[in-house]
UniProtKB/TrEMBL annotation:
<dbReference type="GO" id="GO:0006508">
    <property type="term" value="P:proteolysis"/>
</dbReference>
<feature type="domain" description="Peptidase S9A N-terminal">
    <location>
        <begin position="18"/>
        <end position="410"/>
    </location>
</feature>
<feature type="region of interest" description="Disordered">
    <location>
        <begin position="1"/>
        <end position="21"/>
    </location>
</feature>
<dbReference type="InterPro" id="IPR029058">
    <property type="entry name" value="AB_hydrolase_fold"/>
</dbReference>
<dbReference type="InterPro" id="IPR002470">
    <property type="entry name" value="Peptidase_S9A"/>
</dbReference>
<feature type="domain" description="Peptidase S9 prolyl oligopeptidase catalytic">
    <location>
        <begin position="494"/>
        <end position="694"/>
    </location>
</feature>
<keyword id="KW-0378">Hydrolase</keyword>
<dbReference type="GO" id="GO:0005829">
    <property type="term" value="C:cytosol"/>
</dbReference>
<dbReference type="Pfam" id="PF00326">
    <property type="entry name" value="Peptidase_S9"/>
</dbReference>
<dbReference type="InterPro" id="IPR001375">
    <property type="entry name" value="Peptidase_S9_cat"/>
</dbReference>
<dbReference type="GO" id="GO:0004252">
    <property type="term" value="F:serine-type endopeptidase activity"/>
</dbReference>
<protein>
    <submittedName>
        <fullName>Prolyl oligopeptidase</fullName>
    </submittedName>
</protein>
<dbReference type="Pfam" id="PF02897">
    <property type="entry name" value="Peptidase_S9_N"/>
</dbReference>
<dbReference type="GO" id="GO:0070012">
    <property type="term" value="F:oligopeptidase activity"/>
</dbReference>
<dbReference type="InterPro" id="IPR023302">
    <property type="entry name" value="Pept_S9A_N"/>
</dbReference>
<keyword id="KW-0645">Protease</keyword>
<dbReference type="InterPro" id="IPR051167">
    <property type="entry name" value="Prolyl_oligopep/macrocyclase"/>
</dbReference>
Length: 696
């Protein structure tokens, strides 16, 4: 088999022999990389060669490297850990401090692991993927590191006392590079789900088998606990270490929005938690929480999609179906999150894309209503997020508040203490002058009459003559909500120069819960694009901007969105930015993790589904005879989630047709597009300068 065929993912039937750009799917093929280098050089000589670009890149880099950013922390035992990047540590430091020190303006940090030094010693550009620390001793950690930022990574055991890795020859756990993970059972045992060889991965490239692995034994001797079906998406296992409620679980993901959770009992017997596959399940202490994506009828009662239900865990496993409704959505609300503390549950509700917090208290004895109280001191405006400091030990929570113009703040408070007010711990610096700027929320009307909310950040005295350079951003997929947040880089590169910034909350997202998402799945995908185009038209109708001054930007699924704006609505935009995108929707399910997204888009190998998928496949919608606005494509060679071939192929087709195309492919970075702050600043500056030069 030749090298090109080896590099291409998928079955021979999936290979389209009429695709003249198939060779660009060979990620590191000599011919493909020569094409990438040529395009990168052209971009370096054009957009990236100006003084304005250098200034923008420096401004963004200063934000990313700022020592004054809020260092987010996680409590591990009595210490508080943080992962930090700055100019001196581009790959990052894992470090720790005490809460007393963290409360000061200049905490004293102890370095635990220096990723830059590790990479220099080992000759690998390591990218931090996180760590799991074993309770209750808090000495051993499982650290995940990616070479260059790919989703595939390695897991290595680390000693937090000696601040050194435990070598495999000394009995340390080590998982070779693959998509997967390790999870602690106890000091000498882990769950392992990874690439075990032929047949052990799903079509998406994720683990299909989970095993129990004992310290000091070969990986290939680990005991198999569960094997998923050949067409599943991901299999994993984990232990809940909550004192008094230690339980083991096996998680089976059949597809996005379809999963099963099993309790692992004596003799490795598996008991499935009997809820709809589309539901999300959480277990904490004696409680089972069920978040519904679809209506669920139990006996004579029907619980609506988007509801949050509670049940006694042991009683539910025994067959009891007494369920308490903790939240039920209405026309304007959805559940944004639920956070346990030691004795309470904080629910975060979006109401027309604005956060509202409530505190619920589980009833004593496990039955009866859950008393509800206000969350004292929560901001009324902007995005508010809550997370537990340590849900096993206390009722303390972190409170993060932000909006587009107000620097993010971090506070700490105690839930359930009616007199407690959040204590401000940290504030993000003011990275740009927001005086005179304002945030509006408007609603556009989509093609089918649906109201589509969107936020506009602009000068309060903006002249409504249609001439303002305007950047419209969106995503619209996978039930992900876009809520206001402070971005120093965007503020400096766009708002401070007089630009207008717009975020659209289109269907496919989660702003109004599962129903908002489901309204734009598969054959209804067109609704997301109609929603987005309706926002563009509404901006013009309001006089904020005009097509010549309106740009659009999106990445990943948002890159598919902007790819469709380019190919279906080119007359609405003056410039388009498409980042780490899906674009070839005929091939997507055969490239890297693409098979895992068929619940979102459909299966292009089924003729009836390809009939509608092709209507939103930008690679196939491109018409060489049509006029298009200037377009910037960016991607990453190391992206092992969304194949770089998507961006390469449409860019190549457009270049060959003589269109105005700018292309840049970062060699590192994974799906995030960048492996460090320098690369991130460069990628962001490319987008902002490309748009500014074409829209002003």
């Amino acid at each position: 088999m030749n090298s090109e065929a080896t590099a291409l993912s998928g079955s021979p039937a999936a290979t389209a022999p009429t695709d003249p750009h198939l060779w660009l799917e060979e990620v590191e093929g000599e011919r493909a990389l020569a094409w990438v280098r040529e395009r990168n050089a052209a971009t370096a000589a054009s957009v990236a060669a100006t003084e304005a670009f250098a200034a923008t890149e420096d401004e963004i880099r200063a934000v990313l490297d700022s020592d004054a950013k809020i260092p987010g922390v996680s409590r591990i035992g009595e210490l508080f850990y943080n992962f930090w990047k700055d100019a001196d540590h581009p790959q990052g430091l894992w470090r720790r401090t005490t809460l007393a020190s963290y409360r000061t303006s200049d905490p004293e940090w102890e370095t635990v692991l220096d990723i830059d030094a590790l990479g220099a010693d080992e000759g690998t550009s390591w990218v931090w993927h996180g760590a799991q620390v074993l309770r209750p001793d808090y000495r051993k950690a499982l650290v995940s590191l990616s070479p260059g930022g790919s989703d595939a990574d390695v897991t290595r055991e680390f000693d937090l006392h000696t601040k050194a890795f435990v070598a495999p020859e000394d009995g340390g756990f080590f998982r070779p590079e693959a998509k997967g993970d390790l999870a602690w059972i106890d000091e000498n045992t882990v769950y392992v789900f990874t690439d075990f060889g032929e047949g052990s991965l799903t079509p998406s490239g994720y683990p299909r088998i989970v095993k129990r692995w004992t310290r000091g034994t070969p990986l290939d001797s680990a005991t198999t606990l569960y094997e998923g079906e050949a067409d599943d998406m991901y299999i994993a296992a984990f232990r809940s270490h909550t004192p008094g409620f230690v339980r083991d679980f096996v998680a089976r993901s059949l597809a996005f929005y379809s999963s099963e959770l099993f309790v692992l009992g004596a003799g490795d017997q598996l008991t499935k938690i009997d809820v709809p596959r589309s539901a999300e399940v959480g277990v904490k202490r004696e409680w089972l929480l069920i978040e519904l994506r679809d209506d669920w009828t139990v006996g004579e009662e029907t619980y609506v999609s988007g509801s949050l239900l509670a049940a006694d865990f042991d009683a539910f496993l025994a067959g009891d179906r007494e369920l308490t409704v903790l939240f039920a959505p209405d026309a304007t609300t959805s559940l944004a999150g639920a956070t346990w503390t030691r004795g309470h549950l904080v629910i975060n509700v979006l109401d027309d894309v604005k956060n509202r917090l409530h505190v619920l208290t589980p009833p004593a004895g496990g039955t009866g209503p859950w008393p509800r109280s206000a969350f004292t001191g929560a901001p009324e405006i902007g995005t508010v997020e809550v997370s537990a400091v340590d849900s096993d030990d206390s009722d303390d929570v972190w409170l993060v508040a932000t909006d587009y113009l107000t620097p993010t703040t971090l506070s700490i408070t105690t839930v359930g203490d009616d007199g407690a007010q959040p204590a401000l711990l940290k504030s993000m610096p003011t990275f740009f002058d927001a005086d005179g700027l304002t945030i509006d929320q408007h609603f556009a009307t989509s093609d089918d009459g649906t109201r589509i909310p969107y936020f506009v950040v602009r000068s309060a005295d903006l002249t409504l003559d249609g001439r303002a350079p305007t950047l419209l951003y969106g995503y619209g997929g996978f039930e992900i909500s876009l809520t206001p947040g402070y971005s120093g880089g965007m503020g400096r590169a766009w708002l401070a120069r007089g630009g207008v910034y717009v975020v659209a909350n289109i269907r496919g997202g989660g702003e109004y819960g599962p129903r908002w998402h489901q309204l734009a799945l598969k054959e209804n995908r067109h609704r997301a694009y109609e929603d987005f185009s309706s926002v563009a038209k509404d901006l013009v109708a309001r006089g904020i901007t005009s097509p010549a001054h309106l740009g659009v930007q999106g990445g990943s699924n948002g890159g598919l969105l902007t790819g469709n704006m380019l190919t279906q609505y080119p007359e609405l935009f003056g410039a388009v930015v498409i980042q780490v995108p899906l674009l070839d929707m005929k091939r997507y399910s055969h490239l890297l993790a693409g098979a895992s997204w068929m619940a979102e888009y459909g299966d292009p190998d089924v003729p009836e589904q390809w009939a509608y998928i092709q209507t939103f496949s930008p690679y196939h919608l491109f018409d060489a005879g049509r006029e298009y606005p200037p377009v910037l494509f960016t991607t990453s060679t190391k992206d092992d989630r969304v194949h770089p071939g998507h961006a390469r192929k449409l860019a190549a087709a457009m270049i060959e047709a003589g269109k105005d195309v700018t292309y840049y492919e970062n060699i590192e970075g994974g799906h995030g597009g960048a492996a460090n702050n320098s690369q991130a600043a460069h990628m962001q500056a490319l987008a902002y300068r490309f748009l500014w030069e074409r829209l002003v």
